[in-house]
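Fold it.
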Amino acid sequence: MTDKADFTEKQYLGREWMPITIRLVLAMFCFAAYFFTDERERNGDLLAVVGFAIITISIILGFVVHFNTTVANKSITLDGLWTTRKVKIDLNSIVKVEKGTYSRYLFNNPVYNLHTKGTIRFYTAGNDAIHLTDRDGLLYIIGSQHVNEFLRAIKEEMKAKG
């Protein structure tokens, strides 16, 4: 067993195109409303402050890691934000691995370790995901922006002796 990971991916909270678009439209609305307010209104400056705050928060969210996915030592390790627990999936208990879509919906909220109806979901951005099924029938859906590399690394770890 080596300490070198076969695959590592960091997924950032603020880099998905749809939430960025929504935040920028809100900021543009604030700036447009500020531009069209009269000078005699006292609360008009608040719109400019809110617009700049939205842009600042968007920039900060671009550097916040939602979770880190690592494939090494016959396991997948998912390490999330500050207070989340580290999740380790043993590849010896996995019976089926396949590439698929995360969801059929256009808008998906970022989730970490969400348990619903026999599935456990990990997702930040993108459309693709890896579907892992364990011996007990539990389905893990792990969203990835590099799904082909992720699938290759999982299959190589499952084939590795040791």
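The mean pLDDT is 87.
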